[in-house]
Amino acid sequence: MKNLIKLLSILSVFGFYTIEAQQVVKKDTLSGTELIMSMDPKVKDALESLEDKCSRVVTTTPTRDNNEESYTKPTKIYVPNRELTNAEICRKNPRILGYKIQITTVKSNDEANEIKSYFRKRFPNLKVETDASLRPNYKILAGSYFTKQSAASDLSRIREYFKSAFAVQYRIFCAEAK
Description:
- Helices cover 34% and strands 31% of the residues.
- It is an alpha+beta fold.
- The strands form 3 sheets. Strands 6-7-5-8 form a 4-stranded antiparallel β-sheet. Strands 1-2 form a two-stranded antiparallel sheet.
- This is Sporulation protein.
């Protein structure tokens, strides 16, 4: 009996509280996609007032009598609906994660310099450099490429002279990359 009374009292409390939900369609600010949700009109109004406050930028304009704050909308962020070209990516990030061809790894700086000079004679159009981050070993790296596929043609030519050459992911200067 007590459980029945508790159940009826809980149901009566929820029976007096009714939710009037309405369907609201919002647009995403960056991509413009639609988001459909159901919410109470009071919640919708509160959210809209918060969004309105967030979308304003405070600027102070001095007047003769006093300093008043006026609100102006910020500029919209433009998000392209296409994939960016390499030139557009390079303008934003001068150094990106790309690929280099690792020719070989040697134990001394003298060996590295010999291999670099031999490589320059065979491939004068490719930039070659030494990475000494793994001392006492030295990596000899060549070229700069956006993708592994763009490195494939040079890699096949280099493998004629250096059988152990392979493409490695490396931070490259965007302007030098192919």
